[in-house]
Amino acid sequence: MTDHAFPEAWRRGLYETITRRRDMRAFLPDPIPNEILARILLAAHQAGSVGLSQPWNFLVVENREVRAKVRAHVEVERLRAAETFDQERREKYLSFKLEGILDAPLNLCVTCDQERFGPTVIGRSTIPETAVYSTCCAIQNLWLAARAEGVGVGWVSIMEPAALRTILGIPERIVPVAYLCVGFVESFPERPIFESNGWLPRLPLHELVFHDKWDERPRPDLLRALETSRIDGAKATPTEIASCRFHGSLSPGFPATSARRLSWSGSSGPCARGD
């Protein structure tokens, strides 16, 4: 085994960024310095892409009138989506703040050009969807870089692509993949909003990993590692193993109460990561 691992401090910083990422809804009006925005976009542009096709574009939306049109459309879709839930879930859904389109100093629309570099791109010819998958890799890079810079990002997905194309003048062949609110925030919550409000639980990692074939459980030694390892490389204590399953627990410095765990039975314990 060769040693190409980053120094421990680098690794810890990476995992810290991953575990502290949040899907934000409230923003400060302070403008984002151009240098920070450029670094965030450069990190996105460093993402892996199928056949090096780099299918993404980043549309920076600052005009308030344009953003107001986007928000008006989102509000229509939000109310329409509410009708898909039963009464109890509908009321809870409507209580959530799901966007900060006008609060954030800028929005970003990340798009995908599925025809970039022509009809033949290595990998894309077999699986055309890999262009969109590549764009999602860029979005994740952007999100993590923003968190490292202390900048919040909120992904707004309650919208119709056709409406977004019309508002932003996006060509028909271009796919709007993500509409992001971007800005500094008062604070990053310890737990994701949908977790802290009990909307959905964090699924245990060991239930999501198969071995060789679909639905085949991992071999015992890997299963043990999945159940006991933490993202900082430490091991769960015997007490923790007996009472909980860890799913990427937080690195040193996080309070014990924020550790990501869910009960063995999959019942409603606090599960940690999220959006």
Could you give a short account of the major beta sheet?
4 strands, antiparallel
Number of strands: 6
Spatially, the strands of the biggest sheet line up as 1-2-4-3
What is the number of helices?
9
- The domain count comes to 2
Q: What does the overall shape look like?
A: globular
Helical amount: 25-40%
Supply Rg: 20 Å
CATH uppermost class of the largest domain: Alpha Beta
Low-pLDDT windows of residues = 242-274
- CATH fold annotation of the largest domain: NADH Oxidase
Q: Overview of this structure, please?
A:
The chain is α+β, with helices and mostly antiparallel strands. It folds into two domains: 10-188, NADH Oxidase; 200-263, no CATH class. Helix content is 36%, strand content 13%. The chain contains nine helices and six strands. It has helices at residues 8-20, 34-45, 64-82, 87-95, 130-148, 161-168, 193-196, 220-228, 238-243, and strands at residues 56-61, 106-113, 151-156, 174-184, 244-246, 261-263. The strands form two sheets. A four-stranded antiparallel sheet has the order 1-2-4-3, with helices on both faces. Strands 5-6 form a two-stranded antiparallel sheet. It starts with 7 loop residues before the first helix and ends in a 12-residue tail after the last strand. The model is unreliable at 242-274 (pLDDT under 50).
